[in-house]
Structure formats: structure tokens, C-alpha cells
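Researcher: Excuse me, C-alpha cells okay?
***
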Amino acid sequence: MAQLNNIRNFAILAHIDHGKSTLADRLLEITGTIEKRKMQDQVLDSMELERERGITIKMTPVRMFHTLNGTRYTFNLIDTPGHIDFAYEVSRSLKAVEGAIVLVDATQGVQAQTISVLGMAQEAGLTIIPAVNKIDSPLAQVAETRKQIAELCGLPESDVLLVSGKTGAGVPELLQAIIDRVPAPKGVDDAGSADGFRGLVFDFKYSNHAGVIVFLRSFDGATKRGDKLRFAASEQVFTVLEVGIFAPAETPVEHLSAGEIGYITTGIKEPGVASVGDTILPAKGGGKTLPGYDRPKPVVWASIYPESQDDFNQLRLAIDRLRLSDSSFTYEEESGGLLGRGFRCGFLGMLHLEIISERLHREFNLSLVVTTPSITYEVVTKRGKREVVYSAARFPEYGDIAEVYEPWVEARIISPSEYLPKLMPMLFDHEAFAKVTEDFGERNLIVIEMPLRELMRGFFDDVKSLSSGFASLSYKILELRKADVVKLELIVAEEIVPAFSRIVSRKRAELEAESAVEKLHNLLPAQLFATKIQGQALGRIISSKTVRATQKTLGDFGKNGGDRTRKMKLWQNQKEGKKRLKEHGAGKVRIPQDVFLKMVRKD
């Protein structure tokens, strides 16, 4: 059991691809947590998807021991994701630690997400240790990057450490700085009964054998196997089956004491009992709950359906289980017409949506259909009713709408100066306006505001493309503002197809309608009668194309007898038959599944 004064809890924060996981590898190696012969790259990125993409998706805790001047210190490190879509993972880790290493790549300099995560750490009241990574690279601009991060943190340049996660240079000095600068945790260090125990749940997972396993930071007291504890929010009492630490694998220990980070195996197998941000307290009652976390607010919505409805129950089980390891997405059941039953899900961004979809496919062997992403709107009808709409199909009709409000974002773009002439016109195309433009050495910081709808319309890809990949982007959600948007619907054979509906900017309505109609015209198979496809917005038809009817051949008739009069009579009979089909309602267009999938997916 570690003494409070010898414990140091800290996280590594950085922009994506600035070397967090590589630095964590060196810390594990130098402290002897993992033997050198067993080392591999990205030790803490255990998920296959993380290794494949080279990014951190889940925050990962690990315990290390380091002896300095005869004193043995306990380090509890949390490696965090760097992409803006996983900022909720970062925010949860910050409440479990007292310090943060803010890492900057010497070859790239301060990036947009660097500023964002630094602000989060400062708001949480953490001790900041700035460090410049990749100093061994021939492309490194060490002096310039050191100056940038020092100015950003408001510290002298001498306080900014220089390290190389690849070679290990400067890592011993970093360990010394963690001991010297990061304060020891505060709490009641009591190894006796669990009567005074308090712990904050920052993550959890599910095991078929052991039930819910909660990851927590202990603030007061101590707990051990056999203790009776309870979740403060759900009031569920449980018996501790096991307590342990991350070394980096889950390793059982005798006690989990104040100031430590570890796990508790609860044995609970009912869903909804454990929740991120809950406080674990003694079962007998009493004890003050700890400040939890704000609930994550979905930014992007999309529907997920199984390709085969036979897999619906398996999809429900998979989403329930995945929610236990990622509490930042939401879901509810819905019916999608042609696609059958599925789930309407809320995500923190486009990458988050992509990762969850891929995990469902890989970890649960499911073939899925994911619809075109959308955002949430607030609509005021002419009758004064205000409602929240997250699906275009549920958007009120054009004549019933008085006002529409949509979320806006404040985005930060850091880009080399030579790309500004290309980026500025693109901002106008996405309805963005620049609030601040500042010189940042040889780069520029642009602070803009824009509709979230436009951010989701390929804005990030456009920024990367126009800057040859050198610009970086971060954003935060602002308030709702009045929107000038309309619902675009596709009408096939005089019937609206709700699944094809979408919300578009009023000024782009005609362009979007023409594009959607053209796409469906190219995909839809010919019917027995001419099929009209129309794009409707602003209460009128603004685009139209017709799929010609199939032309049935007369086979071998006429090759060895018969004349044109006979052929004309048969063609006339076909024409009358097609007319009767439509008159009796049998001419309804059946849209094949593959056409539907191609329409809702991006090109």
C-alpha cells in the first residue's frame, strides 16, 4: 500500500499523433513496469483498431513504480486520446489526477487541439508539465516549439522539458519533474474498514464471468475483497469480489487505498447500475458524493440497422455491451421503414461514429447499415410549439415552420501562413466567419464561428486538403442560433420516401436537390411504367427526372411470320396494361435494398 506522499497521479495530453503512446512506452520501459524484451509499440493501445490506425481511442490507466534517492514512488498514469471527438475521455481522466504532461511535437509545433486540452487541464486546476517531444527528429524545430508552448502555458522556457519518446532522451528528467512538480493526492489514508471509503468511477467494462468491473480513483479510505459497498446514484449494494491495479494488465492487490487508481470487480450483471461519474460509498450509508461529470452531448446523429433483421437482437445486445466501454454515445430503438428496426444513435463527432460502427462490426461480427449523419434542430411551429428534431423525416412541413434553430461551433484552425489564401474562401463556402486571426510564428491561428451543420459537411476534410495536411482543427459547441434551412424530400412516383429526406441550407437547396435526384435516377431500376423522381423543398418541386419504362421485347415473334400491325397491337396491349397497373395502385415503386443503401451512404 503506497503512502499518500509518495503517490503521483498524472495524464498525458496532446494533439493527435504527437507521440503520447510512444512516450508512455518509454515510461513503462524505464520504470521497469514492462521488461525490455517484452516491449512492443503502443503497449497501452490494446484495441486492434487503435493499433491499426495509430491513434488512441480509449483512455488507459497504468501503475508504475520509480525509486529516486532511496524513496519508492507510485505513478498512476492515464494515457488519453488526442482527437477532438474523444475529448470526453480526456475530461473524465482529468478528475482522477493532479497533474498533466502537455506534449507538443517538435516537428509540428503547437496545434489546435493542444490549446484545447491545455485549457481543459487548467480549468481542472491541474499542475501542468509542458514538454517538447521528438527532439531527435531531423525536422525538429526545438527552440521555436519550446518558445510556443512556454508562452501558451505562461511559464519560462526553462520549465519546458525536452524529450524523445522514441530514444528515451530526457525521460529520466521528466520522471524527476513529475515527482517535484505534481502534488501528492489529498485524502483520508485509512487501511481499516470500508466505512470511510469514497471512490469516483471514471470508466467501467463488462465481463461475462465477473459482471461489471469499475475503474475508479479512490479519494478516501480503503477497500478490499469482501467489503460491502454501494453506488450512490443507483443505491445498488454489492460485495467486492476483487480489487486491483493496472500494471498494465489487471492485477489483484490486497487493498485499494486513498489516492490510488485501480479497479473493483462488483459481480453485478444487470445493465444500468454502474455509471460514469458515480461515487462508490460504504453500503451502510453516509458519505458525501464526489463531483461527477457532465453528461456528454451528442453532436452527430445516425441510425444503425442490421443488414439482416434476423440480427436485430444481436445488434441490441452488442450496443448494450459497447455502451459499457464507451458511455459517450446514446441510443434508442426506432423503425426505419425499408430497413426495419434499428437504433438512432448520438455521437460526439464523425470519427466517433466511424469508430463505434467499426467496433460493432469487428467485435460482434455484425454487418451494418449506417445512415447519413445529421444534427439536432430546434423548430418553432406557427402554432407556437417548440420541439427538438434530430431526424429530417420528422421535420415539420414547410408551411408549418415559424423558426428553426441550429447549434453553432467555435473552431480554431492553426495553419502555415502560405495556405491562408486558399482557406479563407472555403470558410465563406461553409457559412463561417473569422473572429480572430493571429500570427503564431510562421503560422496563423484563425478563430471562426460556423453552423455545426456545415462543420459536418466535409469541413475538416476541406481544411486538410487545402492545407496539404498541415492545418489542424479543434472546436467547441456554442449556443443555438437561428437557421436558414429547409427540408429536402425525394418523391418517387408521386410518393415521398422519408428515408431520403435531409436538411440543407436554403441557398444550397436547388443544388442538393439536383444532385440527389440525379443520383437516384442513375440507381433506380426501370419499372413497367415511367417513374418520375422529384426533389421537393420550399413547398415546391425544384428538380425532376424520369426513369423510362422497361421496353419488353416480342421475343422471336415476327422473325418467321407476322407483320407490323400485329406487333403494334401487342405494344398497345402492354401500354394499356401499364396504365391499369397505376390506376389500381399496383404501380407503386419498390426500391431495392441496394439502391437504398447507396443513397444513404456517401459516394
User: Anything to note?
Assistant: The first strand starts at residue 7 and ends at 14. The two ends are 57 Å apart (CA to CA). The chain has 14 helices and 31 strands.
